[in-house]
Amino acid sequence: MSTDTKGEQDLGTHDEHHPTERLYVKIAIILAILTAMEVSLFYIAIPAPAVWLTSLAVIKFVMVVGYFMHLKYDTRLFTQLMLTGLITALAVYGVALATFLGTTRP
Amino acid sequence: MSVPVEETSLGLDNRKLAMWAFLGSEFLFFGAFISTYLLYLDDFNNAVNGIELFDIPYTSVSSFVLLMSSLTMVLAHAAHTKGDMRRARLWLLATAFQGMVFIGGQVFEFTAFVKEGMGLTTSPFSSSFFVLTGFHGAHVTVGIIMLLSLWTMMKMGRIGPGEDLKTEMIGLYWHFVDIIWIIIFTVVYLIPAG
What's this model's pTM, rounded to 2 decimal places? Predict the structure, then answer.
C-alpha cells in the first residue's frame, strides 16, 4: 500500500474558485424569479407555452448544476459523467416515447 | 475523524467521482418514470381526471421551498469550507427543515388526491404519477436523513472543519433531487395542466 497519502483537500475536490455566498444568494433570487415566471406562464395565454416552460426549466437546471453543484468550477470530468447519464436517458426514453406515443393501447 | 485518502491516478477524490457517476445513473432511473407518466398522461381508466386535481399554486409553493433549500445547502457547504461549524450546522438544519416542509406538502397533496378518488391503482395515469413523485419524495426523505446525520456528527465533533467534502457530497445529492423536481414540476404539473 502506498504511504503517499493526502488530505481530502489535496485531491482536487475543492478548488479555490467556488462562488461567494453573495453570488449564491443572487443565483437563488434569479431562480425564484424564474419560478415565478413559470407559474405566471401557466395563467396567461401565450403561444407554445410548453416551449417557454421547458426553456425556463432548462435555465434553472443549468444554474443549479453550474453554481450550486459547482460544475462550472470543478473538473470537466464531473460534467461529462453527468451529461453521459442525462444524454443517455434523453436518447433512450426519447426513442421509447417516439415509438409508443400515439399508438393505441389495448 | 479525518481520514486521509490515497492519491488517485486521476488526481480526483474517488468518492466524489462515484457520487457523480451515481447521480448520472439516476437520470436514467427518473427518466424511466417520467417517460411512463408521459405515456399514460391521458389514460384515466374512465375514472377521475388526475390533471384536473392538480393544485398549481400549492405545488408552486412547495417547489419554491425545495428550490430555496438548495441555497441553504450551498451556504452550509460554504460555511463548512470556511471552518464555521456553527453556521454550517444552522444551514444544514434549515435545509432539512425545508425538505420536511416539502415532504409534508407532498403527503398532504397525496391525501387530497386519494380523497378525490385518485388512488395508486385507480388508473395508469395515477399509478405513474404516484410512483414518479413518490420515488422523488423517497429521495428527498433519504436526503433529510443524511442531512440530520451530518448535523448530528458535526454536533458530536465527529466531523470537523477540514472535512467539508462530506457536506459537499450530501449537498450534491440534495441539489440533484432539486433539479429532478425542476423537471417534474414542469413536465408533470405545469405543461399537462396548462
Answer: 0.90
